[in-house]
């Protein structure tokens, strides 16, 4: 995978600190763990980029032990573009069968889009999280997305009967999405507030969920009828859950517009800790926390505070090139195990 021909690691249940120079594959290890959870990388780029250059396949294999000593085997193989995933030696037919089996929470530089990117990045974030905690949400979202895609295509042909049919489908699944989103965003806000109060009690921050949600299919269809003329003009669907917004407030201002890099990262870290708490509450499974380059753009005090909160109940993986950061972590916790990626791309306990 990426740069490795083969890599075997047996990690601890507490804090696993993976260190080494840039380009040695630290992030690739986190990427592999993430793929075993959600079948895809958290890094941008084409899917085939995970395969080492010059190869046409790769394999991942894991044995996961839960807190009550139950073992789950997950394997992931790609050969000539064909993906095969097995759970306890049984091949799954749908990716949705993997979602939620082995939940992970990722903190990485790629997450910056959740704060600073397009609104779709924030919708993608809550959709992924809510799909992990509720398989039915994932199914409803898939059906709504299908109807939305078909409606967008139909708007170009101005087929009234087809538009009416897809509007009806959007209303059925859109109202169900809103029902669940309103419930789960409220829970996420509560978890975030709890984390923030412990992490930064002297500074105000909050998550705002902005939606035009309706309570019934009839109301939904009524809104679509009101917007019908405008939608036909712009050839876009203008009403529904795909227009919801998530907004982050820091010191009573929009974090996206006025926050520094450090402020954005501390709030994003708090959001991810809240995510871990929500997953544990709704699924009873403790997620693994992956921290890619935790110490970038954060002072050491905040980095240690975040790590302490994450490692109270979760298995944690951290990557860093900073050996001093590793020593700092060790001075604060006796739960840290070091894994060194050396020049020969070997991972061993240091």
Main beta sheet: strand number and arrangement?
A: 6 strands, mixed
Please write the string of helix (H) and strand (E) elements. Answer: EHEEEEEHHHHEHEEHHEHEHEE
Shape: globular
Any low-confidence stretches, pLDDT <50, length ≥5?
Answer: none
Report Rg: 22 Å
Q: What is the number of helical segments per DSSP (H or I, 4+ residues)?
A: 10
Helix content range: 40-55%
Strand order of the largest sheet: 6-10-11-1-12-13
Computed structural class: alpha/beta
Question: Explain this structure to me?
Answer:
Strand 3 (71-79) and strand 4 form a beta hairpin. The two termini are 23 Å apart. The strands form 3 sheets. A 6-stranded mixed sheet has the order 6-10-11-1-12-13, with helices on both faces. A 4-stranded antiparallel sheet has the order 2-3-4-5, covered by helices on one side. It has helices spanning 26-38, 112-116, 119-133, 135-155, 160-199, 217-234, 255-258, 261-283, 300-311, 323-332, and strands spanning 15-19, 57-65, 71-79, 82-87, 90-91, 104-107, 205-210, 245-250, 253-254, 288-292, 316-320, 336-341, 347-349. It has a domain at 112-283: Glutathione S-transferase Yfyf (Class Pi), Chain A, domain 2 (Up-down Bundle). The model has no long low-confidence stretch (mean pLDDT 88). It has 350 residues and is α/β, with parallel strands linked by helices. The chain contains 10 helices and 13 strands.
